[in-house]
Write a structure and sequence with these properties.
- By secondary structure, this protein is mostly beta strands.
- The protein has one domain.
- The chain contains one helix and five strands.
- A five-stranded antiparallel beta sheet has the order 1-2-5-4-3.
């Protein structure tokens, strides 16, 4: 999984799997989800991410199983 934030466009890209995208769905005017042939989510793109999350910074925590 990769999470990338593009500050210049305020875009958050969450990549869940590296597979060819066969379908893209708009969840709303600022959120897009990409799916593979089996219907698995490949990625989520969120425009205006800092405003929508109401958070000025991003933090990530990996929790042990």
């Amino acid at each position: 999984m990769k999470v990338r934030y593009f500050e210049d466009t305020d875009t958050l890209l969450i990549e869940l799997r590296d597979a060819p995208v066969t379908e893209t769905r708009d969840l709303d005017e600022n959120t897009v989800m990409d799916f593979d042939a089996k219907g698995n989510i490949c990625s989520i793109t969120i425009e205006h991410a800092s405003v929508r999350a109401d958070a000025p910074k991003f933090s990530f925590e990996k929790v042990a199983a």
